[in-house]
Amino acid sequence: MISGRVGLGMGEKFNPKEGDMVAAGAFFSQPAKHAHYVWTGSEPAIVQVQFIGPGGIDYINPADDPRKK
Questions:
Q1: Which end of the chain is more exposed for a tag (fewer CB within 10 A), N or C?
Q2: What is the pLDDT of residues 26-64, one digit of tens each?
Q3: Whether the bond into 54 is cis, omega within 30 of 0
Q4: pLDDT tens digits, residue range 6-16?
Q5: Residues whose CB falls within 8 Å of the CB of residue 6, separated by 6 or more in sequence, listed in order
Q6: Cβ-count burial 1-39 (b if 16+ within 10 Å, e if not)
Q7: What separation in angstroms does the CA of 10 have from each of 14, 31, 39, 43, 65?
Q8: Which residues 6+ apart lie within 8 Å of 19 measured at CB?
Q9: How far apart, in whole angstroms, are the C-alpha atoms of residue 19 and residue 37?
Q10: Mean pLDDT (whole number) for 22-27
Q11: Which pairs count as long-range contacts for 32-39, CB under 8 Å and 24+ apart, including other chains?
Q12: Which residues face 42 on adjacent strands?
């Protein structure tokens, strides 16, 4: 996390009550193909995303994929 706050949760269903809010300076790592979700609150956030390729995003619900809208 560069700045702001972001919520992080694990699993295929969005449930912010089971996730944690992290602030600037936090680090999050997980293996490939592990379902997770993120959300923001009312403040802006800057997040650095880094991975070793090839990489991509697989949506649990294909309708959520903004590339298909």
A1: C
A2: 998 888 888 999 999 888 999 998 888 888 888 999 998
A3: yes
A4: 999 999 999 98
A5: 21, 22, 38, 39, 40, 45, 47
A6: beeebbbbbeeeeeeeeebeebeeeeeeeeeeeeeebee
A7: 8, 12, 12, 22, 18
A8: 7, 8, 9, 10, 37, 39
A9: 9
A10: 94
A11: 33/58, 34/10, 35/10, 35/11, 35/60, 36/8, 36/9, 36/10, 36/11, 37/8, 37/9, 37/11, 38/6, 38/7, 38/8, 38/9, 39/6, 39/7, 39/9, 39/14
A12: none
| Residue keyed to tokens 């809010």 | 21
39 vs 17: CA distance, rounded Å: 12
